[in-house]
């Protein structure tokens, strides 16, 4: 039987497609289905093989539908990859009512005005999130509706993605037979699931270490202030292990998960790993410390690039609520300790902070953060969904018409 009010998060990641199905019940979101399927159709967060991606999405949806006992017709989907850009933009309009009272349609118009920012060629806007508003000379207003003035201004953060990435992703969803309720930057989605209001007020950075990419979202004074994607993820660590230990990628992945550590200094030089414990054919014995050295080198590269993003906004070592890690890559042993040292900030692995019910323990894992966050984003922004036609172009007419609605 179809359940009308379900909200579905579909995270199309470089290594897997994850689906979570939520049913809003009395202020809680009850998880009634979830699934995870390996995805071979992506590189570094973008679709490179439509057929493979469509089959991973279809399989994941089928499994989630079976568990939830309801068909899935539309989803909130994640977008990532280093085609993602973020920039600040200012929008200014004249307040429309003769008596000078700011209305909801004024705030929508000023956000539209902020969208007229010049993005690099072949990019389109995924999000335009106002940081705050100014009415005449008064600035720092979170919600200006009901205030009086002549001029309404906003400072917004605009997140854009490559038109081709948006097009290919929407094509995959349409071929898998589902409509898109909204397309959400994966770092922003994960932050919905993991960050508290208080952390966002204090200043916090969400770092989602996936397979092919590391997505970043920084919040200050409650609002998103910076977003970025580093084109390196945990699969790069696996590749380095395969090269360094001369093993297959499958073997390297198992070694990383079972014996990996980001801190060689904590491992005794005499500690050895018998590879036969993973593959009986393999008689090698390797030094665990050497394995950690390989992992350490790549992890340091990722941490340095994260630090560069903090430097870009003048917050190196200066975010009071620190760093919240998620994504499969965040499960690496000793990563939290290394990140604390290198970033000189408090660091923790995130846990869902929202009220969820149902199959909660099954999805309390970094690989589901984006998917859970997508559902929450969907519940908060049902009307804000961008609508994509079959060719993947954002339906500009709808957002244009929206400004005339009350
Ligand atoms: N226990 C673990 N220790 C270290 N790494 C792990 C562990 N478990 C999973 N990983 C790594 O996490 C990665 C997958 O994470 P995740 O599912 O978040 O990526 P994704 O969403 O598919 O990719 P992306 O976000 O880059 O598109 C894999 O590279 C995997 O090796
Ligand atoms: Mg991911």
UniProtKB/TrEMBL annotation:
The record ties this protein, via Gene3D superfamilies, to: 3.30.420.40
CDD domains for this protein: ASKHA_NBD_FtsA
State the compartments where it is located.
Answer: Cell membrane
Keyword DNA damage: yes or no? no
Which superkingdom, per the lineage?
Answer: Bacteria
Provide one Gene Ontology biological process annotation.
Answer: FtsZ-dependent cytokinesis
Ranges for domain SHS2: 7-194
Q: Topology relative to the membrane, per the entry?
A: Peripheral membrane protein
According to the record's subunit comment, the protein's assembly and interactions are: Self-interacts. Interacts with FtsZ.
According to UniProt, the name of this protein is Cell division protein FtsA
